[in-house]
From TrEMBL:
Presence of keyword Transferase: yes
Gene3D superfamilies: Spore Coat Polysaccharide Biosynthesis Protein SpsA, Chain A
Short name of one Pfam family: Glycos_transf_2
Keywords per UniProt: Transferase
Entry protein name: Glycosyl transferase, family 2
Record GO terms (molecular function): transferase activity
Domain Glycosyltransferase 2-like intervals: 4-130
Domain of life: Bacteria
InterPro entries xref list: Glyco_trans_2-like, Glycosyltransf_2, Nucleotide-diphossugar_trans
Length: 340
């Protein structure tokens, strides 16, 4: 499999060489390294040309400052790999990262999008693993479309098959995503139907430093409102671009559930439970959906665990019945008040 590493940089000249060198020092080298400098003013372009300008494996692209999504669009357009890796210029790869990721894609042919564990270093020093073992996160079309569920990781922990990006990139939303453009990759991959996996090894080094735009920072209500609005706009744009209309909702939900490893089921079921509970449908429809989803889970577990699953269903049934009763009671009161 031919692979490309896409590095986006803006004014990180103090870290840039370490990022590029971490790719050049891989046990399995990528076929190409594409570095997009997004209009840096700190000498990054000169550093790249002086250190790597004669390296045939490295493509250096300089552009005006248009933000992170613009840099990702440019990197993708100039790439040719079957597997694409992303790397922020202040992060680094473990020497065996690419080798391990390619091995995962070979062992799991259904894997379209891979999230890797990370090691935070710099101001802190710790490994961050979402799961203890490698797992299938499955599909997340419905959960992203209706629940705005973010099934992803930091930019540098992401890789994916080319067809995934071909389905929605380049993305013409650059003005809205000058930063946090990894959200575009995460939601885009979900909505086009990429099956996601998680590699439970800290093979990406995520640098913590004073210039981090998001790590450890708090944001005010205005920022949070605008960010949530951009997410809604992004999802709607992606759904329109990929002609996704949300038909056969329960069928999608069932397939997404079945595509996930048992370790992921509980997390997904909570999300689907919320989506079903909020649906403007009768109680019988809601309970039927929950029952059928639980049967998917029961089939994926050992027989001696079925009793605990049944207990879980009875608890969920009680909660959804109570919610439906309260919702209907509130609606009746409002109707009576308006007719009085």
């Amino acid at each position: 499999m031919k692979c490309s590493v896409l590095i986006n940089n803006y004014n990180y000249s103090s870290f840039l060489s370490k990022a590029v060198n971490s790719v050049l020092e891989q046990s399995v080298l990528p076929d190409e390294i594409i570095v997009v400098d997004d209009g840096s003013t700190d000498g990054s372009c000169e550093l790249l040309q002086n250190n790597y300008g004669n390296n045939p494996r490295i493509k250096i692209i300089s552009s005006k400052n248009r933000g992170q999504l613009s840099a990702m669009n440019l990197g993708f357009i100039h790439s040719s790999g079957d597997i694409l890796f992303f790397l922020d210029s202040d992060d680094e790869y473990d020497p065996h990262y690419i080798e391990s990721v390619l091995d995962m894609y070979r062992k799991q042919p259904s894997c379209d999008f891979l999230i890797c564990g990370r090691k935070e270093f710099g101001a802190v020093n710790k490994n961050v693993l979402r799961y203890k073992t490698d797992v299938s996160l499955g599909y997340s079309v419905l959960s992203s479309l209706y629940g705005e569920y973010w099934e992803g990781g930091q930019t540098s922990t992401l890789s994916m098959r080319r067809w995934v990006l071909d389905a929605f990139m380049p993305l013409n939303l650059e003005a809205y995503w000058r930063v946090r453009a990894d959200d575009c990759l995460v939601y885009g991959a979900s909505i086009v139907g990429a099956k996601k996996y998680y590699l439970a090894r800290p093979l990406v080094y995520y640098r913590i430093h004073d210039a981090n735009l998001f790590y450890g920072r708090e944001f005010n209500d205005d920022y949070q409102f605008k960010y949530k609005l951009r997410i809604k706009q992004l999802i709607r744009h992606l759904a329109h671009k990929t002609f996704l209309d949300g038909s056969n909702v329960f069928g999608l939900m069932k397939k997404e559930m079945a595509s996930s490893s048992p370790e992921v089921f509980k997390e997904k079921y909570k999300l689907y439970f919320t989506l079903i509970r909020r649906a403007d449908r009768h109680l019988s429809w809601k309970v039927s959906c929950l029952k059928r989803l639980l049967f998917v889970y029961i089939r994926s577990r050992k027989a001696n665990q079925n009793s605990s699953v049944k207990k879980t269903f009875h608890k969920l049934y009680s909660n959804i019945f109570r919610y439906n009763y309260d919702h209907q009671t509130s609606a009746n009161i409002q109707n009576k008040g308006s007719s009085a």
